[in-house]
Amino acid sequence: MGSNTVRSTTLWIGTFCLVAAGMTACQSEPKLLPGKTTQASVSLSPSEDTQDLPVSTELGITVDKGETTQVTVEDSDGTDIPGTMRDDDSAWVPREPLDYDTLYTAKVTAEDSDGIPASATTSFHTMSEPKQKVSATVWNDPKYEYGQAMTVQLDFEEGFEVDEDHREAVENRLFVSSEPKQEGAWHWFDGNHLEYRTKEFWEPGTTISLRAALEGVPLGDGKYGSEDLEQDIQVSDIARKIEVNDDDKEMVAYKDGKEVKSMPVSLGKASTPSYSGTMTVMEKLEHTIFDTTAQCGGKVQGSDCYRTPVDWAQRLTWSGQFIHSAPWSVGDQGSRNVSHGCVNASPQDSKWIFNFAAVGDPVIVNGTGTKLPYGDGFTAFDLSWEEYLEGSYATDVPSDASADSD
User: Fold this and answer.
1) Which residues of the chain, if any, have pLDDT below 50?
2) What does the alpha-carbon distance between residue 353 and residue 341 come to, in Å, rounded to a whole number?
3) Which of 168, 178, 274, 319 is in the most buried spot, having the most CB atoms within 10 Å?
4) CA–CA separation, 343 vs 333, rounded Å?
């Protein structure tokens, strides 16, 4: 989704006053011509005197045979409420959540092709503050520079899932803009977690801005969003990629499209194969302990129940596949698969690739014969664009337009 110019609540277009970003340009108002009536008509929603509306309510606008020229929304004290039009002019979105238990009055003016205006007004009253609210969080850290395969990730509080009938409304309140603009869309992995990605990897140096306008949005089962969220996310200006090929047991690092280093590796043995697919570096751990003893009653026994100190680990899946240092398998690297699913490399090569890569960098593994499971890690880019769009509930996807966050 791209950017839509933020306009003040009172916006005149064409022959009216234009107020935006501190600039004012005025022309005379159109004069009604004797014997002429406007061809334009305006209809608004919510309808007059609608009660108990969520504070996420938008002003729906339908104009026939004309174009919108002015939108004014005021509370009962006569205070202008700032907002912006959606890119398709279908609705006016408040810049911040409306107040609870408050009366609002809206007026919209449009002009036909001759500049003759038509207008419509409506008033509505918001609901009292609900008792049951659900919070959401953005996974991405605004202080970090991510790789090109990083998705924007939104989670609702643990144990809650948005009712399926409400997911379209939620998705329509998630505004993403980017500089430069790129085609993107949301995908629900389940009712608690959804992600936003572009059709291709993010362009290097992209700045992403998210406004999750969720306060007051109905989520189902009598619950509502608790607050609006805003976050800026930065993509590194360096394009890094890691490719792993099981056929020749090799890991290759690329920077800005050029190969910079090739390293021998050992992948998962037949009983615990590595996954093939497009993965993403999820986290980086200089030193950690791999502990699989939970499946054995907490005891170290056999080859599959172990506690092993590991250096230079980069997580690829939730289920525990990593790129990491494996000094015990150096003799097998480049020729034979002996791991429990991880990408084993020498201590020297593991440290190098650890320092090279960033969270969000794509890691593409080929040739293992075992497909990466859906949702095991950051798997959005493992889906084709068509498959990915099937996880969106929005009516029109994708879109590169949004209600701006400033």
Assistant:
1) 1-31, 398-406
2) 18
3) 274
4) 10
Cα pseudo-dihedral 83, 88, 91, 93, rounded to 10: -30
CA distance 372 to 341: 11
What does the block give as tokens for 363? 């890691």
Sheet containing 218-220, strands listed edge to edge, beginning at the edge strand earlier in sequence: 133-134, 223-225, 218-220
Distance in angstroms (rounded) separating the CA atoms of residues 139 and 252: 29
List beta partners, residue 210.
176, 231
DSSP 312: E
User: What SS3 class is residue 170?
Assistant: helix
- pLDDT for the residue numbered 328: 95
Cα dist from 37 to 13, 40, 114, 117, whole Å: 20, 9, 10, 9
Burial of 263 (0-12, 13-18, 19+ CB in 10 A): buried
List 104's β-bridge partners, or say none: 75, 124
What's the CA gap between 111 and 118, in Å, rounded?
A: 6
What distance in Å separates the CA atoms of residue 175 and residue 231, rounded to the nearest whole number?
11
pLDDT tens digits for range 88-147: 889 999 999 999 999 999 999 999 999 999 999 999 999 999 999 999 999 999 999 999
Kindly calculate the radius of gyration of the chain based on its CA atoms and give it in whole angstroms: 27
Other C-beta atoms lying within 10 Å of the C-beta of residue 129: 12
Closest CA to 215 of 57, 355, 10, 379: 57
Q: How many CB atoms lie within 10 A of CB 33?
A: 10
Among residues 287, 406, 269, the alpha carbon closest in space to that of 347 is found at 287
pTM: 0.85
Rounded Cα distance, 278 and 381, in Å:
6
**Alpha carbon distance 137, 59 (integer Å):** 27
Joined together, the tokens standing for residue 221 give: 């089962």
Tell how many helices (H) and how many strands (E) occur in the chain: 3, 30
- Can you say whether residue 122 is alpha, beta or left, with left for phi > 0 and alpha for psi between -120 and 50 degrees? beta
Measured distance CA(105)–CA(78) in Å, rounded: 9
Give me 406's structure tokens: 């400033």
Q: Rounded distance, CA 98 to CA 46, Å?
A: 14
Pairwise CA distance, residues 271 & 155, whole Å: 34
Distance, C-alpha 406 to centroid of its chain? 18
Query: How far is 41 from 89, CA to CA, in rounded Å?
Result: 15
Give me the pLDDT at residue 33, please.
Answer: 55
Supply the pLDDT for residue 311. Answer: 97
